[in-house]
Predict the structure.
Amino acid sequence: MTIGIGVLCKDGVVIASDGMCSAGPVGVDNLKTHIIQNKIVCCCAGADNYLQFFINFLNLKFNDFGFDTRNRTADDIISSIISGFYTYVSALMVANIPAHTQNLLLQKLQNDFLNPQTIQFASVIGFFHNDNFYLYRIDGLTPSPIKPTGMWYAIIGSGFLHGMPSIHLIKKIIQINSIPNVANAVNLAYWTVDHAIEVSSAGIGGNITIASIRKHNDNTFSVQTENIEQCKGFVEDVYRHIKTYFEQPAEVARVPEFNANEPANCEKVC
């Protein structure tokens, strides 16, 4: 199983995921957050062979001599990725396979990518294009753009983790009511994935990885992996403050009341 999150930010895009590939009770480390040719960040969920095919395809498509995006819209880029990926996977699946078996494999492929009940591939993918940042969620062959004016994040997963509401709770805790910046989103994404791992016994775990695209003051952008230890420190500090607050006696923890008609008196609140 997988828990992955993408966050569209004021100044970039953040992608995070867990790091375990599981088959029944067996789990092995597996990198799920990727930087593609220093241009794209993404994470994937679903059948392991499709995930590897997707990363291989993106590296081929966006190499230094490959796909030209200059005169394309972001939607065009995503549509080209999806259609090209499906063609790429189809060719790999039927290569060197007898003709009578090819149709069965192609039927399975259609079921894995087109049937909403049995989709075996999902991804969140972010990139910088024409001076803007874009984030898309892909379910099978269906893309959904993430808009800064609406729900500015996307979660992918499987089983009961699909659409996990933990980020709603975390957003309330740290009081982010609008699209965050990259610095806040990195900690938010780590906290969400870490919380999902903590409360779930459904085959997610391993090392959390986070990648981001950031825009700088000179209008250049950089793609990088984030320092997980700093994220851990942030989450531990928040938990410690929350724990300390709730352990305070009621008369200490309550917010002091002020009377606007009285002069300020430090002794009343110290």
Observations:
- Residues 159-164, 252-270 have pLDDT under 50 and may be disordered.
- The two ends are 50 Å apart (CA to CA).
- Helices lie at 48-61, 74-94, 99-114, 166-173, 182-199, 228-247, 250-253.
